[in-house]
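REQUEST ID: PR-0412
SUBMITTED BY: lab tech R.K.
PRIORITY: routine
TASK: structure prediction, single protein chain
INPUT:
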Amino acid sequence: DEVTETPKDGGDEVEVVEEPSGTLVVGITEASGNFNPLYYSSAYDGYVVDLVFEGLITRNFDGEFEGVLAESWEYSNDDKTITFKMRKDAKFSDGTPVTAHDVVFTYQVLADPSYTGRYGAAVKDMKGYKDYYEGNTQEFEGVVALDDYTVQFNFEEALRVNFSNCGYAVMPRHYYGADFSYGNTAGVEAITGEPMGSGPYVVDLFQEKEFVSLTRNENYAGEGYMIKDIILKFVDQTTDIIELTTGGVDLLYGVIEPDKIGQARNAGKQVNSYPR
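STATUS: complete
OUTPUT:
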């Protein structure tokens, strides 16, 4: 994203930093407006969540895990503990640093007995979950901040799924947790339409049954994502291919019917396919 140029007069090199630009219009079927990463249920809301939030890790296009908020990690000798060292430059969109305490908060919500979302399975194999969930203690041993940028996950058994369960979207404690206390996640659940994460985009506007508008997060510390604005435009499945071929949208994402793929190719559109 950075370009170095040499002045014509032979002086010192000048570093020119490329700025995000342009707008991408993506056709989607719907979005309910629940952009809370622990409570959303629609795949289209999930598109927004993925653009706004980051986890410690993610899978790349080859299906391999790589660090996002985590810069490194190590396993204990018995493989029941995974310790992550976090990047120190990551910030939420309001400029607040992302720390291990935000990771702990996120997983405390998932483990809380009042949590009503569908992602609670992520914490059920973690150490101390049963006692925490049943109210025997208010200290969750499963996820612990060793310092501001070191977070440790502790599991009851060495299971293959443990590592992926460390990758849920990290939520800012100061924003989502203002009214949070053990046994009361209502305040976390209530924040749906104005999400705050450390990902490349922020939600600019959600117009029900029309579109979701996102713009580049000025505090994003990662690389890439050089499109400035993304609009998720609601299109009908009976006319979405017309929207694409006539320029109403730039991209149709998801499962596309074979006959529409043929129409897109005939209109000179690029078709990308990925293995299941």
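NOTES: The longest strand covers residues 21-28.
REVIEWED BY: pending
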